[in-house]
Write a structure and sequence with these properties.
By secondary structure, the chain is mainly alpha-helical. It has one domain. Helices cover about 50% and strands about 0% of the residues. It starts with a helix and ends in a 10-residue tail after the last helix.
Amino acid sequence: MSLDAQRRAALLAKLGAVCADIARLKAGEDATLATLAAPGTPSPAGVDPLTRLEGFKALLNERLEALVEGRYGRCEECGRALSPAELNELPWVTSCQEC
């Protein structure tokens, strides 16, 4: 499996999990896990879990689009290539550690 295919699979798996969390929240189920911030994303104070998950879902969809368009893997701030380690750990990352 190519590296792009692996990252696409990781993004799709996370997207599926986020969509499942959103569905559980909308069904009125316990939000304990959903209140946790998504790994590698800021967790603004006062943002409800559903809004946070919807934002993370949008980020995952944007990263999948970037992968298809060839924009994936570069820092959106400075344009440098993101490290393979960063992308393996958090395939939805959008900026390098320096930015």
